Amino acid sequence: MKKYIFYTGKTLLGMRMARHYIPNSAHKEEMLREIGFSSIEDLFADVPKGMVKEFNLPEGKSEFEVFLELNEVLSKNKTVLEMPSFLGAGTYFHYVPAHVKYLIERSEFLTAYTPYQPEISQGILQALFEYQSLIAELVGLPVVNASMYDWGTAMAEAALMTVRLFRGKRKKFVVPKYTHPERMAVLRTYGAGPGIEIETVGWNEKGQLNLEELKEKVEGAAGVYIEMPNFFGILEEEIRAIGEITHDAGAFFVVGVDPTVLGIVEAPGELGADIVVGEAAYFGNPMNFGGPRAGIFAVRNDPKLIRQMPGRIIGMTKDAEGKRAFVMTLQTREQHIRRAKATSNICSNEALVAVAAAIHIASLGPRGIRELGEVILKNTAYLKKRLSEVGEIPFEAVNFKDVLVRFEKPYPEIHEALLERNIHGGYYVKPHFPELGEAALFAATETTRKEWVDALIEALKEVS
To answer: Which residues does the UniProt record annotate as the domain Glycine cleavage system P-protein N-terminal (predicted)?
Structure first.
């Protein structure tokens, strides 16, 4: 039996099984000579000493041994029924109907990658067209792409887009100080190269955008961004006024939205938004440890906005025989045009996540989406009421999903005590906003049970 450098497995009938998993590994010395090196050490000579370490990997195991070991590790996990979770802050436990997973596991969806030959990818193109149509109806803007990586990258791409629309004459992008910290980190990363100036605006006594401060800082801005609901879980009451202030300054108004709220509030497009971004994965997708996601990106029906959109747009037309056909109407990304002309370097979009979201939205329909929002709002209100018994609610406004509560005792100690009682607490916000003190965000969705909230409050009374 031929021997290779890399082996896996143990012995079978006394014979070592050879597995050649890495291509051309037997030609290592020849490849090194070809590129002018005598050894692997010479190849990595520029790497500082101490940075390259031996992995000291254990001996290989049989497939059944690995199966047993992994199941032992997995048995340590606890389901939501065993440990109710109130950890929100951008990732939420929503119920996903069984048929959504069944449908996206069909091979034409599950194995469909970027449709480089759209004429032979009619199924996935139609599904993405339906996704665009559903999101357009939800957000109140007619042109939607399919899609971005997640909410954070969609927001950052919107910032880049507003600057491009001013041809670099305006480089300031105004955001609330209390924008989701992870999205802020993405924005700073995306904006570092083009030199985008990020200006922040604080909050008022209700935990909403301070309009007077916005009026001072909006001058010369390319865009203004807000979120609905904001990071504190609060629904902004003055979105239309914020849009008017933005437009009076000649800037573009960008709204980030959790689409599960759109059954009970006005669509951002109807409130004056020029660009809407958000997270489509709240429909049809489990939490997945925070990913993958699918970022929403929608704009007004304005050619100058449409031409600057990142990603791709799927359109419907007719073929040479007059039959309905779906095509890539716009794909201004670096893989398809000259890199200098590309609006974005986004390559693989989140097509499967978007299709799952479309299936879920279509299944709910207008009535179902409204009822979903109503149930979440009701559960959030109950959670907020009960939390006020054990901590301080710093902002009195309408909350959706997340509720900010402040404690006297250090929250990490409270959190550990909750875990010991099989309850997963909220998201600690002091590292991001130290001025709020020992505060945490607790979240509720349509899946939150009354008995879970009651158990949480009883536990908090014991430990806080």
So the answer is: 19-460
What is the pLDDT at residue 262? 98
Decide if 70 contacts 76 (C-beta within 8 A).
no
Cα separation, 275 vs 269, whole angstroms: 8
Q: State whether 20 and 131 are in the same domain.
A: no
Taking each helix axis as running N to C, give the angle between helix 450-463 and helix 411-420, from 0 to 180 degrees, rounded to the nearest 10. Answer: 120
Helix, strand, coil abundance in the chain, percent, nearest 5: 40, 20, 40
Residue 137 sits in a domain whose CATH number is: 3.40.640.10
CA nearest 324: which of 129, 134, 132?
A: 129
Within-domain flag for 201: yes
Q: What is the mean pLDDT of residues 68-79?
A: 92
Total structural domains in the chain? 3
Average pLDDT over residues 129-148: 96
**What is the largest distance, in Å, between two alpha-carbon atoms of the chain?**
81
- Cβ neighbours of residue 446 under 8 Å, at least 6 residues apart? 94, 95, 372, 375, 376, 379
Contacts of 230 (CB under 8 A, 6+ apart): 176, 178, 179, 207, 208, 209, 236
Last residue of a domain, one of 361, 394, 423: 361
